[in-house]
Design goal:
2 copies of one chain form a homodimer. Chain A is α/β, with parallel strands linked by helices. Helix content of chain A is about 45%, strand content about 15%. In chain A, helix 2 crosses helix 8 and helix 4 runs parallel beside helix 5. Chain A is globular, with a radius of gyration of 19 Å.
């Protein structure tokens, strides 16, 4: 066995505050909610780059790393959507406890589910952001071609078409992506994180 | 609206390599497996302190932050245990992609389930560690009083009593907690992380 470095045994557990302090930031989850095509992913990536360039440590949860991994057993039924958001909220809590700033980009159409996440991660760490664009604009953008498929009846449970979207009553922030561009929206998000003392 | 800092829009996504580089480490999951009472949590906490003191960024997944959160809907049946480990593996993957060194402390009794996690996170990022102590020693330690309750028939599905434990055939490391103390075990783990180039 190679020579061993000295390790001191601690009985205690490293605390979330310790992890955040070591990273020089105060963890917050930026929870982006809105219709498909509203601009959540674009804003999320722009915010992540802005944070990264400023030396902060964040992580993005979105369909790309959740749907085919942790939540691959869930469908788009109301129950499946609810469990989808519950698990994402629990993972966000773990990432926050690890000291990271978390950005999420999910339609998350139901008010109650978002309220449950707020409760899971704690009010002080939850920044609900309504990424707003009208259905007509989202349908025109249709970056994944989902609206077209839903209109042709090829897919069901499309939020805005045959499933409801419940906009937040009192989000911490609203970003209107019909009225302003990505850079301005990302700057708003960064400013909101500054006001919270996160960065 | 307050004056906005300039934000440059990137179309790309921040990659796992970028996150790891920003944290100055190479992410690995230290997967501790062994009987209840074998010393997994104690070793995990000792390793975390050693990493923290050396300026590294890690996160611990264990019963305390998983059982009553993400996996509170699961029972101790073989199917429940399998899904428990699957989800923990998926969360470990996300934490690794976030750049963190991950330490897990779960009995994880089934070989197939651990092999699935190895596959999920990728061979190069998986360090399977058998935390070994005989059943007699574990039962004598019985830190949670679970063996006593199992012997009295008050709880079922106790690994080692009425549920099997499948030890790893070829773990990256075995730590015998009957033969050596916590500090020596944590030092072995740290050395293994050094050999991997993680720290």
């Amino acid at each position: 066995m190679p020579e061993q470095p000295e390790v001191v045994w601690h009985h205690t557990r490293i605390q979330p505050e310790d992890r955040a302090a070591a990273l020089g930031q105060r963890p917050v989850v930026v929870w982006l909610t809105g219709l498909s095509g509203s601009g959540k992913s674009t804003l999320a990536n722009a915010l992540e780059h802005a944070l990264h360039e400023r030396g902060h440590h964040s992580f993005l949860l979105d369909g790309d790393n959740i749907r085919h991994g942790l939540n691959r057993d869930l469908d788009l039924s109301p129950e499946g959507r609810r469990e989808n958001i519950r698990r994402i909220g629990e993972v966000a809590r773990l990432l926050l406890d690890a000291g990271l700033i978390v950005v999420t980009a999910f339609i998350s159409p139901y008010r109650d589910d978002r309220a449950q996440v707020r409760n899971t991660v704690g009010e002080a760490r939850f920044l609900e952001v309504h990424v707003r664009a009208g259905l007509a604009a989202c349908e025109q953008r249709d970056p994944k071609g989902l609206y077209a498929r839903a209109r042709r009846g090829e897919i069901q449970h499309m939020t805005g078409i045959d499933d409801p979207y419940e906009p937040p009553h009192a989000p911490e922030l609203t970003i209107d992506t019909e009225a302003q561009g990505v850079a301005a929206g990302a700057a708003q998000l960064l400013e909101a994180l500054r006001e919270r003392g996160a960065v």
